[in-house]
């Protein structure tokens, strides 16, 4: 725009319109960042979602770790029970299991003969679901038995 006079050697030249636009744009960006910082801190909902996601991830990691520890402890306890149980007791347990299976089979046949068709169909559906999820059910049963055995041994101390 204007140029400094020759007597004004220390004066800065007047900025051009392009320089002024650039300064204005820079100032707008700084102002936007300045306004966004407190707004982000005030967004409690977003902060809560972020914290919930972190906690959920930590809980999943801990659950996996605990699950692995329980599985290992259950395996150790089962092996310990097997090792400590005398052979005659294991034989009697096997005989009792066989008798229980036979009695259950007889009871199942009797119940099937006396049960109405709609109830039988629902029971068959539940049994097929249990067969499909056999491993988790067996793991849960073993964990429960181990828990009971550990609880029983602690009571004796």
Helix share, percent: over 70%
Count of alpha/pi helices? 5
DSSP E strands, number: 0
What sequence of helices (H) and strands (E) makes up the elements? HHHHH
Shape: elongated
Poorly predicted runs are none
Based on CA atoms alone, the radius of gyration comes out at 38 Å
Q: Termini, distance in Å?
A: 97 Å
Structural class: mainly alpha
| Biggest sheet record | none
Beta-strand content estimate: under 5%
Q: Please, what is the average pLDDT? A: 83
Describe the protein's architecture and organization.
It is a single chain. With 157 residues, the protein is mostly helical. Helices cover 85% and strands 0% of the residues. It has helices at 17-42, 44-84, 87-114, 117-132, 134-156.
Keywords:
single chain; 157 residues; mainly alpha; 5 helices; elongated
